[in-house]
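Try this one yourself first.
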């Protein structure tokens, strides 16, 4: 177990290093990527641009600029080129909205995907009406996957917010300030983001359950006289959840790292995704670099956690 943990830590460090280098170099070679020109302004003279380049250290070699940026990130002193604000502090202010959106929506799409996927698998093994219901669930799942997030969010806002006045028209209220206001502001974003993933999870689980039902150990369990309920939950569902657990952990990490950009924008949540989009639009390297590294770190950490859960669900998996 210790050797496995050390290997995972080494892989995490290597991935973070590679991503940080690639991201930093990418924004050094793109057109109009010179931060000194953007900081000095459109009307700046060459001498003013040179002064800005010298002041910010842009005249140093690329590796020196990279090491300096990494040092600032590690010490929490990295400053945005264009907005002139502390990037770590800005992400800290935006992160609660993204965490609220991710955790709430993640629970909804996991539970919804498991229920719909299991129901679809059981209905597909039934009679004609049951198979018809399975096809209907499959069509609804595909509709959820295919519907653009911004369209679904706008529709929910218009009908449930503007027309029915059931929910606020966007914005974010911190949980610590007003729990009820936080909940009412988050319900529509949760549903918008969860519907996208629920359909996909339902299709994956349905296929996995159907494949698992045909495994020899399931037939053996039935031959031993176990009840269908026990066979379904103790053998079929337990093993069918393995890919779902792995997907869920990685999707949570991706959404936490800014993957919910469209949802945050539609509902004006001011999360990490919106901050990343604004930084990309202005070619502001430090925020993009920090958010990219944050996403990579979360994906690697959640991947390790899903491996542990995978081993807990499947006794055949051993971490060495």
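Now uncover the answer:
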């Amino acid at each position: 177990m210790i050797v496995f943990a050390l290997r995972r830590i080494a892989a995490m460090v290597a991935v973070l290093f590679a991503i940080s280098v690639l991201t930093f170099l990418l924004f050094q070679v793109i057109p109009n990527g010179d931060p000194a020109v953007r900081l000095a302004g459109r009307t700046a003279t060459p001498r003013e641009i040179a002064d800005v380049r010298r002041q910010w250290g842009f005249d140093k070699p690329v590796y020196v600029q990279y090491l300096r940026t990494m040092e600032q990130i590690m010490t929490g002193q990295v400053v945005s080129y264009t907005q002139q604000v502390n990037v770590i502090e800005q992400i800290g202010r935006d992160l609660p909205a993204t965490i609220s959106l991710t955790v709430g929506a993640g629970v909804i799409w996991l539970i919804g995907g498991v229920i719909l996927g299991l129901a679809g698998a059981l209905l597909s093994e039934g009679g004609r009406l049951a198979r018809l219901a399975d096809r209907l669930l499959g069509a609804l799942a595909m509709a959820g996957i295919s519907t653009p997030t911004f369209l679904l969010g706008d529709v929910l806002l218009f009908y449930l917010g503007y027309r029915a006045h059931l929910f606020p028209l966007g914005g974010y209220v911190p949980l610590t300030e007003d729990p009820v206001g936080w909940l009412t502001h988050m319900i529509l974003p949760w549903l918008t983001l969860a519907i996208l993933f629920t359909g996909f999870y339902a299709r994956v689980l349905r296929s996995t359950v159907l494949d698992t039902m045909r495994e020899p150990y399931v037939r053996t369990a039935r031959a031993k006289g176990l009840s269908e309920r026990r066979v379904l939950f103790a053998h079929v569902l337990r093993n069918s959840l393995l890919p779902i657990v792995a997907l869920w952990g990685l999707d949570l990490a991706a959404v936490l790292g800014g993957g919910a950009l469209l949802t945050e924008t539609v509902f004006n949540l001011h999360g990490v995704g919106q901050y990343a989009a604004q930084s990309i639009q202005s070619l502001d390297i430090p925020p993009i670099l920090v958010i990219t590294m944050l996403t990579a770190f979360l994906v690697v950490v959640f991947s390790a956690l899903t491996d542990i859960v995978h081993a807990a669900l499947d006794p055949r998996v051993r971490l060495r």
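Discussion: The chain has a mean pLDDT of 82. Residues 98-282 form a domain with the MetI-like fold fold (CATH 1.10.3720.10).
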